[in-house]
Amino acid sequence: MRKKSRTVRTFGIMVANPKQRMYVLKKYLARKTADMRLFCFTPSEIDWKRKSILGLHHSNWKWVQHRFPFPEVVYNRCYTTKKTTIQRLEAAIGSNKCFNQQNRFDKYEIYKLLSQPLAPYLPETVLYDRETAAQLLGTHKVLYVKPCCGYQGKGVYRVEAKESGEIHMSQHYFLPQLIAADVPHYQAKLDELLGSARYLIQQGIDLQQWNEQVFDIRALVQKDESGVWSVTNVVSRIAHKGCFNTSICAQICLSEEVLRHLYPQEKVDAFLQSIRDISLRAAETVESGTGLHLGELSVDFALDNNERLWIIEVNGKPQKEIYDQFSGHDAVYKRPLEYASYLHTH
């Protein structure tokens, strides 16, 4: 009796440029199941007329470029605000078959969405203008001025009003890069630094530190094989001494380890449970509020000296490399493939 042949499902991973294809594909190939064919491609490799894609594929121990028919499901890893390619792909392969339709979020738009259900966890955040920049500095003494569509702490300024009346402005590090003598001088300097880009102002948090180092708490939230949001893991990036930007980190560890240095286990468990609950709520709110079809995001928290959790930002394209050093990091790469399988059958 002849063996029944197994149906092979083809999934495509879309990346921004050809250099990323092999690097990204390697990560996911190790986690795919036998009935899955994966290939990696860029938007420019789509042939809309022939309904095919020139993608990178691994076959018979070799990396090969192959022309594929449109895949059943597309996992978008392009960091962009444009949705046109995704919309065209969905028109061809079916609605809801591409996930992470857009993964470069506008921080202010996300803040507005979260401000209803998660208000107690959000620092005061407003769009930048010079009057508000002066007013909020009087209220909070420390502010962060961030580009609405920035990433990895680029273009973020920390502003602190000193007792002397001076205003210290810095990037990445607490040590001032610029010192303004008074508020008008500070306003002029900020206008000069920010130019015409869209920025927001966020209330500064009195950050809890570990070993005199700032740390964040990042919850990775991904959809699973049932199409349901779940928290894959919670890690912390520990900044270098004197640095407030956790993207420039000295080390990465599980948040439980950092919290255990600061609190008894019972309190650590309570923090982690709150982080999971808030992160799931944030993911559901962002997806329903934006109307985007998402499969993963990360929620960054800060913990203040009064043991209060704050949502600092939500990232639509979580950095995967930060998880590679942990045992059990397989789930980080497996989840999107499990979710792609779920989409294939639903």
From TrEMBL:
Residue stretches making up the ATP-grasp domain: 111-345
Pfam families for this protein: ATPgrasp_YheCD
Cross-referenced SUPFAM superfamilies: Glutathione synthetase ATP-binding domain-like (SSF56059)
Entry-linked PROSITE patterns: ATP_GRASP (PS50975)
InterPro entries, per database record: ATP-grasp, YheC/D
UniProtKB keywords: ATP-binding, Nucleotide-binding
Top-rank taxon: Bacteria
Protein name: YheC/YheD family protein
Organism: Paenibacillus oleatilyticus
Origin organism lineage: Bacteria, Bacillati, Bacillota, Bacilli, Bacillales
